[in-house]
Design goal:
The protein has helices at 3-9, 30-37, 63-69, 102-108, 141-160, 172-183, 207-216, 219-225, 233-239, 253-262, 274-279, 286-298, 337-349, 369-372, 376-395; strands spanning 42-47, 52-59, 78-83, 111-115, 124-126, 165-170, 191-197, 230-231, 284-285, 324-328, 353-358. By secondary structure, the protein is of the alpha/beta class. The strands form two sheets. Strands 1, 2, 3, 4, 5, 6, 7, 10 and 11 form a nine-stranded mixed beta sheet that branches. Strand 10 (324-328), helix 13 (337-349) and strand 11 (353-358) form a beta-alpha-beta unit. It starts with a helix and ends with a helix.
Length: 396
């Protein structure tokens, strides 16, 4: 879900604290969710250079091709790595189900789909640290780009035998891509192109919110002082149990607040799915939140060097040498068009901007809608798959 989760989840979550029982999809692991649909599923593990163990989920074929050929190895197929946003997981791209979620549509279109899990969520661990160790949580998207993403790209290449793969990220998945290219430009040689959904590099527009949480309320330091090593979903649930009523979004203050942040879109609000994907929210490190806060407060795409109030040291976006597509929501109030156009100008000057355009024709499309819109399949993902085909055929 990306940056939205940080901003809204502090003021919401708890539909599932009501008397009703959530649908089973809320509790199922990603492999079990995929298996239940009939699609083939593989689990792969990769260990980063600094010791984090990341589980990747792979759908090597669509249902029809898997049943017809029985070949789940998918050698020589078109491979694509899909990377989630902040407080998300590989589940973000399967939870809406076949016909809607991007993963299934890509698999049916002939792609070998690899779903990433960045350090910190339930599908990750460490070779020597446990999740109750403070050092486990000492990372931001800087480490995602420096360690996690390179390790997962190498894993896909090693398993498939391919020379290059496609890349797609949503929100923090795009931040991770740009930080990787800044630090590890050699990975230009391992990617065909990058598709960025709701690209999150310049965030000057959310400076007032960052200032409120980080400076006025001093929220992360207060919670750290209480012994909380990271932002956990259970913390948010206990803080605001029974506050929200997502079953009546027009009357719900939490939904109103969310839409104030990301743009109102009641038409694409899926009342049945909202409690499920909120239940599946993953933890975040305080440094992740503070690093995004530093981007907002400084107005620059900077490293976390020196901490939240340390010197500005911009990432080197000119290191990006592969084609990049930027897709934004016309009504996304979190990653807004002017800030995305600033990024587009830099990529264009570097000769790598493939395109920058609205995600779809729906004028209310917001940050949430990229993954969780009610009609995300027909409205966005089906055309997106065709566009990925075009890019792949053009550059591969």
């Amino acid at each position: 879900m990306g940056l939205l989760k940080v901003l809204c989840c502090l003021l919401l979550v708890s539909v599932y604290c009501e008397a009703e029982v959530l649908r089973k999809e809320a509790y199922m692991t990603v492999p079990n969710l995929i298996k239940a649909t009939g699609y083939p599923i593989e689990k792969h593990r990769v260990t980063t250079a600094d010791g984090y163990i990341l589980q990747m989920h792979r759908i090597p074929a669509g249902i029809r091709s898997a049943r017809r050929t029985g070949d789940l190895v998918a050698k020589g197929k078109r491979a694509i790595l899909v990377v989630h946003g902040l407080m998300g997981s590989s589940g973000d791209f399967v939870i809406m189900g076949p016909g809607r979620s991007l993963t299934y549509l890509l698999a049916d279109a002939g792609y070998d789909v690899w779903l990433a899990n960045l350090r910190g969520n339930m599908y990750t661990s460490h070779v020597s640290l446990n999740r109750n160790d403070k050092k486990f949580w000492e990372y931001s998207f800087h480490e995602h780009g420096k360690y996690d993403l390179p390790a997962m790209i190498d894993k896909v290449l090693n398993v498939t035998g391919l020379d290059k793969i496609m890349y797609l990220g949503h929100s923090m998945g795009t931040t991770t891509f740009f930080t990787m290219m800044s630090q590890r430009p050699e990975y230009n040689e391992k990617l065909i192109a990058s598709v960025a959904l709701a690209p999150s590099a310049y965030l000057k527009n959310v400076k007032p919110i960052a200032n409120l949480f980080l400076n006025v309320l001093n929220l992360t330091n207060v919670l750290k002082g209480q012994g909380m090593m990271s932002l956990q979903p259970v913390l948010m649930q206990s803080m605001l149990a029974n506050v929200c009523n997502l079953k009546q979004p027009e009357r719900d203050l939490c939904t109103t607040f969310i839409f104030a942040l990301v743009g109102e879109d009641y038409e694409q609000y899926d009342m049945d799915m909202a409690p499920i994907y909120l239940y599946r929210i993953q933890p975040a490190s305080w440094r992740q939140l503070e690093h995004y806060g530093k981007l907002a407060l400084t107005g620059e795409f900077t490293t976390f060097s020196g901490g939240l109030y340390g010197p500005i040291k911009p990432y080197n976006i000119s290191n990006v040498k592969i084609p990049v597509s930027l897709l934004y929501g016309e009504n996304d109030q979190l990653t807004v068009k002017p800030q995305i156009m600033r990024l587009a100008d830099e990529l264009k000057a570097n000769g790598v901007l493939e395109e920058v355009r609205p995600a779809c024709s729906w004028p209310k499309f917001n940050h949430l809608d990229f993954v969780f819109a009610k009609d995300v399949g027909t409205l966005f993902n089906q055309p997106l798959v065709k566009n990925i085909d075009r890019i792949y055929n053009k550059y591969a």
